[in-house]
UniProtKB/TrEMBL annotation:
One of its GO terms (cellular component) is Golgi lumen. Residues 62-299 form the Sulfotransferase domain. Sulfotransferase that utilizes 3'-phospho-5'-adenylyl sulfate (PAPS) to catalyze the transfer of a sulfo group to position 3 of glucosamine residues in heparan. Catalyzes the rate limiting step in the biosynthesis of heparan sulfate (HSact). This modification is a crucial step in the biosynthesis of anticoagulant heparan sulfate as it completes the structure of the antithrombin pentasaccharide binding site. GO terms for molecular function: [heparan sulfate]-glucosamine 3-sulfotransferase activity. Keywords: Disulfide bond, Glycoprotein, Golgi apparatus, Signal, Transferase. It comes from Pelodiscus sinensis. It comes from the Eukaryota. This is Sulfotransferase. It is an enzyme of class 2 (transferase). It catalyses: alpha-D-glucosaminyl-[heparan sulfate](n) + 3'-phosphoadenylyl sulfate = 3-sulfo-alpha-D-glucosaminyl-[heparan sulfate](n) + adenosine 3',5'-bisphosphate + H(+).
Amino acid sequence: MILLHMAFLLVSAYLLLTHTQGAPVENGALLETLKSQIGFFSNKSEHYSSQVRPPGTNRRIPQTIIIGVRKGGTRALLEMLDIHPNIVVATTEVHFFDWDENYVKGIDWYRSLMPFSYENQITIEKTPGYFTSPQAPERIHDMNSSIKLLLILRDPTERVISDYTQVYYNRLESHKRVQPFEEIVIKNGALNTKYKAIQRSLYDIHMEKWLKHFNLDQIHIVDGDTLIKDPLPELQKVEMFLNLPSRIVSSNFYFNQTKGFYCIRSDGRERCLHESKGRPHPVVNNTVLEQLYSFFREHNAKFYRMVNHSFDWH
């Protein structure tokens, strides 16, 4: 049905172009022109985000939100879920519930940023900053108290290193000064627990705020460490959580030896995550690693008790 609507739009746009321009367009140029006219991008959800509204669709408030965590694998999770025909995704991070300057714009502004969807489809947006935001849990609850939330987590220490790596490369690209990981994490011989990347990995502290507003059965935790090694089982759990038919299969993934992680195959196309994903991490001093493992151990144990589930973290 989706492809039929897209074909209809392509033909309509072709007729409009040939009528108004009075001359045929070469095949390659025509295709690019049609793409720009109707928003024909790289995956199905981006089709809906074009200005042309497919018949029978509307922009809807998300029924599911990926709330975090930053550098936990949120982009991979979103891209992989986008394979499912009953899911459409917002392709950009909206930051509606964690940025006051966006929240004051109101729910209609939020809705306007969502993709077009059919009634049988679930709209999902992801903003990793929600998980650590003091305001987001209450604001999301006020919008929809029965919403389903997805939270993807990975080993807290690995997440800190990944967080540092992203900032490191961003600063390099901006020609700004960079510091070695150890200089940031260790201050005056002790662990710098005020470092934002460490604060973001205190999952128990952040989860406590969410459980004040939502029942645990409304929050599904995806194991980010498992997702990158073996995507299908984690995605099947999400399908069950969202009460969706099983549509994501093993043939939707292939391991890219060059990039070192799984890429996606769907609708006859192959795509990998952006080149900024999967960057090599710095080699971290073992003593510093042990300090991080030790610091997070108690927090991890508390988190396991909160969610009635344990993870294979250090």
